[in-house]
């Protein structure tokens, strides 16, 4: 017993000292036996002990690795409770001004909404796309009009089934990305002047879509780790004529929060009681860091009131602009909106993605992508903990690729955005995630790009710019 405890403690010290870093592979059993003159059973027991402490993880056929997520040094941000009145929106010009600043490839993309495209199998997808173009049946230009390519919808239905949800292909409408899906859902459910509930902070694209459609919003407070407040939502439903809810329940943008499976059930049951549909923007659900995927809200949808929106942009094919809506009882209404707006999504791309899903490499790609994002998250957090000033609060997500930070009260992240741009760094300041432009001392950072010396220098610079405002 003392031998394997001693070896485990020595290995744990190497991890705590930073000699072994998140994602590093431990010595194989054979190498450890030879190097430390100990038996295979001693090594195995030590690695099992380290695994039970949460320091390492076993990967099938690969060995043991230092876990990407170690410790929580910084406290979580506070949950802000926005005023409970409806808000007429005027945010688009403000948001576009900020977003224009992140297009330049010379800028360090901490403020970007996109991960590094090199994390995705774009070369392989390109071969599937070329094959789809060669074998394209001219009739597909008609048969693949909304709701979309039949085989792609069947493959999506199979993925829902794997996540515990029974979704018929006929319920799925293929869209030109998740953003179009959200717009189609809002158009199918609301009229100008209607009120919808959103979480706060929320993804700015939902604010832009709501403003374009002439909708009012009521902001529901969201915990930086646990997600939208069920109690606050229940109160809002009692007091206001809410026509629909637009939420991210899995690894929300910007906070990275995830609503627990139990709270998801409570939320869906609450909305069923009030007969209010849920539009769930779920583009990050496949990017979980744990062993199991979060439970899909469609698995709890007994009455067709959940319109589940997702896409391949974050999980497989950035730039391909293919998404979908599993629209429940509203499938025909969403399909009609699709006909009336963009008519159809590019047919060869739908065929290529269907062929890729059929050949079975998607889950293997996702496992690699999740591991890489988890490692990048740990490296990014370590840089923040080292270089940002005291008083910084940080919400550590269990998936996705965003970090939400609350800085000391006197920091103005709109001013910080301008100063960081002058230093070649983009950030996403907190006010763009609120209808009322709240979260003035908060920001969202993107860890979806592998750590480089340039990125590490940018974190040091950003930490210095924050200190200058204190």
From TrEMBL:
Task: Name one molecular function that GO assigns to this entry.
Answer: transaminase activity
- Where does the record place the HTH gntR-type domain? 1-69
Instruction: Report the domain of life of the source organism.
Output: Bacteria
* SMART domains cross-referenced by the UniProt entry: HTH_GNTR
Keyword terms? Aminotransferase, DNA-binding, Pyridoxal phosphate, Transcription, Transcription regulation, Transferase
What family is this protein classified in?
A: In the C-terminal section; belongs to the class-I pyridoxal-phosphate-dependent aminotransferase family.
Identification of the protein by name = PLP-dependent aminotransferase family protein
